[in-house]
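Consider the tokenized backbone below.
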């Protein structure tokens, strides 16, 4: 018999799933260097001009130098306009599988940055394994993002998916109350915090970091189930226990585990859709 009953697993996962909406939007739209905005602007310019930017040939040396600078800038923006960033034309043509890979990269890089922030969890972080908590949060976020990219948007569908991939559990959330109850909404709001409300880019990134940490700690409450979650390559897990280089091993292990979680989630969604 499972150490943690199904109804408790569902109670923990429902607010997590509900909170992923604003957090994933924040991770998708986070643009500290404004690359996404530049890419979208350049894509519109290319559409309006038919891909051409006519310009008279300069005669002076200064004019020629300025033209070289403008040409270099235009080429860099052209690469951005065809990059795999949300809101660009390239994003619209990407397959769900390509978007899955984008989410793995996006979430993995963000959580690795969060792990490097001193005191992200305050006193609590000094008593808990930071990389494990952020690793389980990253896996949960990527799994929900993949579900959304493949059209699986129901909260309880995503709860079932999370329970299966993270804990190897087959749960039936429909037997355990309302996925949109006032308690679920309140707890989800506490997890996501001020994500989506901050106006400054730095404030948004800080709010995202705090939200990801809280989401990881709430899943950490299912600690007896966490040994079942997708793990990284054994070599990286071993390296994580070695002094000095352990941080590198821990990071690579979590990235490897994140990719395995993503593949398992995609397989689960494909099976579920095949039954419909």
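A designed sequence for it:
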């Amino acid at each position: 018999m499972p150490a943690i009953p199904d109804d408790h697993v569902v109670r923990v996962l429902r607010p997590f799933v509900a909170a992923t909406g604003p957090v994933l939007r924040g991770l998708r739209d986070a643009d500290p260097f404004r690359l996404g905005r530049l890419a979208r602007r350049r894509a519109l310019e290319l559409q309006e001009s038919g891909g051409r930017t006519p310009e008279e040939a300069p005669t002076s040396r200064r004019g020629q130098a300025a033209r070289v600078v403008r040409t270099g800038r235009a080429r860099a923006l052209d690469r951005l306009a065809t990059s795999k960033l949300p809101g660009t034309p390239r994003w619209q043509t990407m397959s769900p599988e390509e978007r899955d890979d984008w989410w793995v990269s996006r979430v993995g890089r963000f959580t690795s940055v969060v792990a490097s922030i001193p005191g992200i969890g305050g006193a609590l972080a000094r008593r808990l394994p930071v990389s494990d908590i952020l690793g389980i949060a990253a896996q949960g976020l990527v799994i929900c993002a993949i579900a959304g990219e493949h059209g699986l948007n129901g909260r309880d569908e995503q709860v079932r998916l999370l329970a299966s991939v993270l804990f190897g559990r087959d749960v039936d959330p429909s037997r355990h109350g309302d996925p949109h109850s006032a308690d679920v909404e309140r707890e989800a709001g506490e997890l996501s915090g001020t994500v989506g409300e901050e106006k400054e880019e730095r404030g948004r990134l800080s709010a995202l970091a705090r939200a990801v940490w809280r989401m990881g700690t709430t899943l950490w409450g299912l600690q007896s189930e966490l040994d079942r979650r997708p793990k990284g390559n054994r070599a990286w897990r071993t390296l994580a226990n070695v002094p000095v280089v352990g941080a590198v091993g821990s990071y690579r292990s979590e990235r490897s585990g994140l990719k395995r979680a993503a593949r398992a989630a995609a397989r689960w969604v494909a099976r579920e859709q095949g039954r419909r």
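The radius of gyration is 22 Å.
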